[in-house]
Every structure is written in structure tokens, then in C-alpha cells.
């Protein structure tokens, strides 16, 4: 089955700096890669996703890149703000075999004002 | 996206008892999923609940321990049976599929925080 690894497990940045979270996956059949933000006491919130036919996707301060050859994808947050502080999860799934997602282990991001 | 609610939001239960968690969505959805998130850990899929058919369980999860119902396209329940302290976790439902979502997008409910004493 799919194995998703995520790094780093914790990340602290100064407000206004950029944050980068990286994930690798093992199953070359995976073709859908969402990112979730989970705030304390809440369910995960989908913030951006990318499909395997695209190398990069951007939504305001958030961007995701995908390298299919190397089987890794990354989340980039620019101009970080204190409200970006949360746990971020990457996931990978194969749309051809169903909607099952395999999640990374999470990154706790702290943005220091 | 969808508005997803779960009941209860949290509960404290005695070992050996069972708890049924409800998940309600504000629109009809093809697929509903149940996940477990142990304290400080990632999300693990328990099962996929499809309307009109038996739930599909992932390795390590069995129907006797986690029976699931899916009576219609907006509602599902997960029961945690014969609980032990190891079942203390956050249980999350998610939805995806038809109903205005892009294929494969999944949206999560707020979760049910379960503590077993």
C-alpha cells in the first residue's frame, strides 16, 4: 500500500517569513495530493490540492508543487501570519481505485509574531 | 464544500460500553468515510460507508468492533463497541464524491473526541 512521509514534524517561523513542508509517497499510482490544515479542536480543513497532471498550483499565499518522478510534493506558505499556526497534513490517493487517502504524520507550524 | 456535523462532539465512556457517533451532511453525497485520529497522531481510515451497500473496512478494523450504518445520502453512524482505553481517539467523518464536489475532494466534520476510562 501507499506510504506517505512528511517533514518536518514541527516548524517555527517568524511572521512574514515563508514555511515549506515536504512529503514523499511510495505508490506511483497515486495521482491526487490534498493538503489539510487542522486547528486545535477542529476537523481538518482542505486548503489546496494538486493532481498528477499539474506540476504547481497556487492560491494566494499558498502553493503546492509536485514532482512525480521523485514522488514528492511540497506545501509553500508565504508571508506567514499567526493565524497560519496549525497542524498541516499531506495526503495521497489513487483516483482510479477509489477515494482512499493515505495521510502523512503531520507538521505542527507555529508562526511567531 | 459541505456543512458536516457530528454528534456528540465529545464523550467520556466506561470500558465495555458502546458509543454511536452520528454524522450529518447538508447535501447528498456519494461517499462517506470514517477516520480515527489518536492523540497527536495522523488520520487512519477505518471504513468507507456507501449508501445501499455494506461498509468497506480497512485492514485492522472489523465490523464487529466498528459497525457502520448509511441509511441515506446525508447521514451515517459509526459505533465503537465494547470500548477499551485504547479506543480513546478523535473520530472524524468525511464526505466526498458527487453533490458539487470535484471528484476526490474530501471534507471533514469537526470530530468526536472520545475518552474511555
What does this structure look like?
The complex is a heterodimer of chains A (113) and B (117). With 113 residues, chain A is an all-beta fold. Chain A contains no helices and eleven strands. In chain A, strands 2, 4, 5, 9, 10 and 11 form a six-stranded mixed beta sheet that branches. In chain A, strands 1-3-8-7-6 form a five-stranded antiparallel beta sheet, with no helix packed on it. Chain B has 117 residues and is mainly β. In chain B, the strands form two sheets. In chain B, strands 2, 4, 5, 6, 9, 10 and 11 form a seven-stranded mixed beta sheet that branches. In chain B, strand 5 and strand 6 (56-57) form a beta hairpin. Chain B is globular and about 40 Å long. The termini of chain B are far apart. The model of chain B has no long low-confidence stretch (mean pLDDT 91). The interface between A and B is medium-sized, with 20 and 23 residues.
Relevant terms:
heterodimer, A: mainly beta, 6-stranded mixed beta sheet, 5-stranded antiparallel beta sheet, 11 strands, B: 7-stranded mixed beta sheet, 4-stranded antiparallel beta sheet
Layout of helices and strands:
The complex is a heterodimer of chains A (113) and B (117).
Chain A: E1 4-7, E2 10-14, E3 19-25, E4 32-38, E5 45-51, E6 56-59, E7 62-67, E8 72-77, E9 86-93, E10 101-103, E11 107-112
Parallel strand pairs in A: 2-11
Antiparallel strand pairs in A: 1-3, 3-8, 4-5, 4-9, 6-7, 7-8, 9-10, 9-11
Chain B: E1 4-7, E2 10-13, E3 19-25, E4 31-37, E5 43-50, E6 56-57, E7 68-72, E8 75-80, E9 89-96, E10 106-108, E11 112-116
